[in-house]
Amino acid sequence: MIRVIYILWLRQMKRFFRSRVRLISSLAMPLLFLFSLGFGFGPIFAKAGEGNYIQFVTPGIVAMSLVFTGIFSGIEIIWDKQFGFLKETLVAPVSRLDIMIGRTLGGATVSVLQGLLVLLVSTLVGFKIPGLGMVILTIFFMFMIAILFTALGTAIASVLDDMHAFQLIMNFLVMPLFFLSGAIFPLDDVSVWMGRVASIDPLSYGVDSIRWALTGISYFGAVLDLILLFVITSILLIIGAKMFAKIEI
Amino acid sequence: MIEVSNVTKDFGHIKAVDDISFHVHKGEIFAFLGPNGAGKTTTIKMLTTLLKPTSGHIKVNGFDSSVSEKDVRASFGIVFQDPSLDDELTAYENMEFHGVLYSVPKALREKRIDELLKFVDLSDRRHDVVKTFSGGMKRRLEIARGLLHHPLILFLDEPTQGLDPQTRNHMWEYIKELNKNEGITIFFTTHYIEEAEKVATQVAVIDQGKIIEQGKPIELMKRTKTKTLEDAFLKLTGKNIREESASAVDNMRLRRRVMRR
Hints:
The structure holds two protein chains of two kinds.
Chain A lengths: L1 H17 L1 H28 L5 H30 L2 H6 L5 H29 L7 H28 L6 H14 L12 H9 L1 H14 L6 H24 L4
Helix pairs in contact in A: 1-5, 2-3, 2-5, 3-5, 3-6, 3-9, 5-6, 5-10, 6-9, 6-10, 9-10
Chain B lengths: L1 E10 L2 E11 L4 E5 L6 H8 L7 E6 L2 E2 L4 H7 E4 L11 H11 L4 H14 L15 H13 L5 E5 L7 H17 L3 E5 L3 H7 L2 E6 L2 E6 L1 H8 L4 H9 L10 H13 L1
Parallel strand pairs in B: 3-8, 3-9, 6-7, 7-8
Antiparallel strand pairs in B: 1-2, 1-4, 4-5, 9-10
């Protein structure tokens, strides 16, 4: 069982480290956001008395790369369906749950590595990293967020047969999740409805948790973040596993 | 080795497979022939536990496929109609992945991978990424992979589709050798009936979900009073096997045969 999970995880790692194009292209979007927003809004943010915007937005951008990479790692199942590799794993004498766990851990690890790369680059544009303890805590939260969204991607990919719905997922799921989460603006003074929308977006708690771990600022409180993240991640893992078990090829 | 009794598979109102029964014995090379949409792939999927029959029973290597799914799965190897390799891994890594999924112990796995890659002439490409392989090389690698866990049965769904004639001949030589030297039972489907005639020891013809004839190739030809398996097939089903995707060459071949009569 552990070996099955390990070999599936290892496969994701090998694919990640082998494909430089994928690595660069998935870093491009978060870094574009970091640079354009960071330097674009920085002066206004400071004028409004909110302090350093790079310091504020970096946790949001790290979360963004976790969501993007996580959901897409899940959605990679569609590729595997189309290119046939999924059949090889589904016809093997192993349980579907092990396959799903292996894939999800692999996808989540890839996402966290991407997120850490974004964090690393952000220090070059002035982001101040906290002490080692807090960084480890950050990585822990990053893993939770990554697993949550990889499981979500898995659930979605399990019911889709081809990549045609890709744009749909991008426009109606990934983008709203990101833009409504408080990743790029503080939730303190937003209108009531915006606050409500943000509070039902699971990513809000993800962003809040790493913002707390990295900069000490939190809107919901780290304890609430942790509890909600844990609950939502568990639920999505169960849904993802159920959907994955139902795949027929 | 394979016992199929009264198996039916419905997809909604459509009966893809309609009350079929047949046996495959140890050491046979069993060809499963039928026009497109006859129910060949659905049958293979049921035999390999990827689909559950609506009714009826399937036993593979003595295991009931609805009860001991894992035992059934561990006992066969399969080469799918479409490639199912990870293009971004090397030949060796694809094999290793398979070995771990089928819990082949490490030492045995390494030895077996060496042997099999040698058998399909891919030893020198073992550390190359699969996406650099030709269609024939991929198919050979898949056969090698399907054999890694010492299966008793090898399922081949259209093993030579999309390959050039020379590679096709090679492929059948590999398959015959396996059957002879390792005693592996082979179950395959194909569009190339003349190839089936050369290698198969048993044939079943399926059309519209029903098995309409089975036996040794020679028996089928006798019963239908034809000289080739392809003509026997034509007589039995009233269809050219490649009807839906018939090429000009196929049509010419068909016309030539009809004229010869």
